[in-house]
């Protein structure tokens, strides 16, 4: 090359600036190549990193999906069991209700009938006892008779014994004679008793009535 340069120089052409220029260009290209190859490597690394991240995220998502699927299956199973359980409860309540609808009125009716027959038996026993006692005494007991009108109490409305708030008893017919406005004055102790609604609402003295 040196010889050739000399020869070329001898021909009067100075090629050195041209060569220097070429060398500079070459260096620039080398540098650019190096930079670009470095950048390439960097890009590749980044790409690899991104791929890794992406891969991990994909795996994570996959796992998530599987978990959700498992949970969904579990939920579906649990829901199925729960629904069956609730349905059974509803069925039980329904059948129990229909059974009760059938049985309760029957039982209540039986109880009422028993109560009625016991009450009737009790009343007839008492009446018999009282009747015997009256026959022995020759006259009715004083408490069987209204002290005002001296009439025997009976189930006939006007002769039913009525107990006042003061505790005294007299027949409904007599009660009417002691009413003034909304008040009834007890003939035995002059206590004023407020009437609530109809005079017929004064409580019947069933204890006395049972013995009449
Ligand atoms: Zn009376
Ligand atoms: Zn009284």
Q: Could you characterize what this model shows?
A:
There is one protein chain. The protein is mainly alpha-helical. Among the domains are: 2-74; 140-210, Herpes Virus-1, CATH 3.30.40.10. 67% of the residues lie in helices and 7% in strands. It has 4 helices and 5 strands, in the order ααββαβββα. It has helices at 2-10, 16-137, 172-177, 206-210; strands spanning 161-163, 169-171, 179-180, 183-185, 192-194. The strands form 2 sheets. Strands 3-4-5 form a 3-stranded antiparallel sheet. The protein has a two-stranded antiparallel sheet with strand order 1-2. The radius of gyration is 59 Å and the shape is rod-shaped. Residues 1-5 have low confidence and may be disordered. The site of one zinc ion has 8 residues, from strand 2 and helix 3.
Q: What's the SSE blueprint?
A:
Blueprint (H helix, E strand, L loop, with lengths): L1 H9 L5 H122 L23 E3 L5 E3 H6 L1 E2 L2 E3 L6 E3 L11 H5 L2
Antiparallel strand pairs: 1-2, 3-4, 4-5
The structure holds zinc ion (2 copies).
Summarize the structure.
The protein is mostly helical and 212 residues long. It has four helices and five strands, in the order H-H-E-E-H-E-E-E-H.
């Amino acid at each position: 090359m040196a010889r050739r340069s000399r020869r070329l120089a001898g021909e009067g052409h100075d090629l050195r600036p041209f060569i220097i220029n070429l060398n500079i260009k070459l260096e620039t290209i080398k540098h650019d190549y190096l930079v670009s190859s470095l950048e390439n490597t960097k890009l590749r690394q980044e790409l690899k990193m991104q791929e890794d991240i992406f891969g991990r995220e994909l795996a994570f998502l996959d796992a998530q999906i599987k978990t959700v699927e498992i949970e969904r299956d579990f939920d579906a199973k649990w829901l199925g069991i729960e629904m069956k359980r609730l349905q059974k409860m509803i069925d039980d309540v329904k059948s129990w209700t229909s059974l009760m609808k059938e049985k309760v009125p029957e039982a209540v009716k039986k109880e009422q009938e028993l109560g009625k027959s016991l009450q009737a038996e009790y009343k007839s026993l008492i009446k018999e006892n009282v009747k015997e006692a009256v026959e022995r005494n020759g006259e009715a007991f004083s408490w069987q008779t209204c002290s005002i009108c001296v009439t025997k109490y009976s189930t006939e409305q006007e002769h039913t014994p009525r107990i006042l708030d003061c505790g005294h008893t007299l027949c409904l017919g007599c009660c009417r004679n002691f009413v003034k406005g909304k008040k009834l004055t007890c003939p035995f102790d002059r206590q004023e008793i407020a009437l609530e609604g109809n005079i017929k609402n004064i409580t019947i003295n069933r204890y006395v009535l049972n013995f009449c």
